[in-house]
Design brief:
Distance between the termini: 43 Å
Order of helices and strands: EHHEEH
Helix content: 55-70%
Number of helices: 3
Structural class: alpha+beta
Strand order of the largest sheet: 1-2-3
Largest sheet: 3 strands, mixed
Oligomer: single chain
């Protein structure tokens, strides 16, 4: 997990009124922030633009896999 998300904070930081500071950090660095609760992963906060990029990449991969499957099915029928 650490290779994907370097920064971690605790849910109690939000209770201390630190949310604006944490959101600004995510926005400025463009890096995700893992929030833990009771020692366990709870949520990940992402910059909106970075989230959109991630979703677009996932969709592109899924479409690519779908095309590949259709191509494989086509060749299997030909054989």
């Amino acid at each position: 997990m650490e290779k994907y998300i370097e920064d971690t904070t605790l849910t109690r930081e939000f209770c201390k009124g630190q949310s604006a500071k944490l959101f600004k950090k995510v926005k400025d660095t463009k890096k995700p922030l893992r929030v833990t609760r009771n020692g366990k992963d709870y949520v990940v906060i992402l910059d909106f633009d970075e989230y959109i990029k991630m979703v677009e990449k996932i969709n592109l991969c899924e479409r690519s896999i779908g095309v590949r499957k259709k191509w494989d099915n086509f060749w299997q029928k030909m054989l």
